[in-house]
From TrEMBL:
The lineage of its organism: Bacteria, Pseudomonadati, Bacteroidota, Cytophagia, Cytophagales. It comes from Spirosoma validum. PANTHER family: LACTATE UTILIZATION PROTEIN C. Residues 92-196 form the LUD domain. Transmembrane segments: none annotated. Coiled coil: none annotated. Pfam families: LUD_dom. This is LUD domain-containing protein. Gene3D superfamilies: NagB/RpiA/CoA transferase-like.
């Protein structure tokens, strides 16, 4: 047994006794209107929210809101099916080629009402650089995947199988000591969330389900 093995064996032999996790029921959210709560919070952190019934409606809002003459990419095949202006992500494309993305449209695993964040995994991003290098980020989240608090979000994502994931809340921003807020400082200039009320528009389950 070498030195490393002896150290690890000593650590393993001196583990503290197991104890039950604390009860966190008091931190769980209430039966508030999650769509309204999420929309209010997300708007206050610099984002935009649209409640939609279909991906076709999402495509129409994209045309109204963004410059469709520039490159738009998505990881949602259904969205590509309703618009030939949108490029479907391909794993065969080199990551360096994503430098000119004007808008990225991704689907979130879930959203959190209390802070406006969405949970994106690498499977949803396609390539992990996409939600950070694009000029504008748009995220589609089915309404039934909005949870009240981060505690409930972690209960759902804790059993997921993913190599990389991140909570993203609003456009990138920074503020100096003079309280001057700058949006789009080191990432997307804007972030838009489309809350999809039609459950039939998505077949994706929570991580681990």
């Amino acid at each position: 047994m070498n030195t490393k093995e002896r150290i690890l064996a000593a650590v393993l032999a001196n583990q503290p006794p197991a104890s039950p996790l604390p009860n966190i029921d008091s931190f769980k959210g209430t039966d508030q209107d999650l769509i309204s709560t999420y929309s209010d919070v997300f708007t206050t952190i610099g984002g935009s929210v649209f409640v939609v019934k279909s991906l076709a409606e999402v495509e129409g809002l994209i045309q109204e809101t963004f410059d469709c003459t520039r490159r738009i990419i998505t990881t949602l095949p259904e969205l590509r099916d309703v618009s030939d202006r949108i490029e479907l992500y391909s794993a065969e494309v080199m990551p360096h080629s994503f430098e000119d993305i004007e808008l990225a449209v991704l689907e979130a695993e879930l959203a959190v009402a209390e802070n406006g964040a969405v949970w994106l995994t690498e499977q949803r991003m396609g390539q992990r650089i996409i939600p950070y290098i694009c000029q504008h980020l748009a995220v589609v989240v089915p309404a039934e995947r909005i949870v009240p608090t981060l505690h409930e979000a972690y209960e759902k994502i804790g059993v997921g199988d993913y190599g990389f994931g991140a909570f993203i809340g609003g456009p990138s921003k920074t503020a100096d000591i003079e309280q001057a807020l700058v949006l789009g400082a080191h990432g997307p200039i804007s972030m838009t969330v489309f809350i999809l009320e039609s459950e039939a528009s998505s077949t994706t389950s929570y991580p681990g389900e």
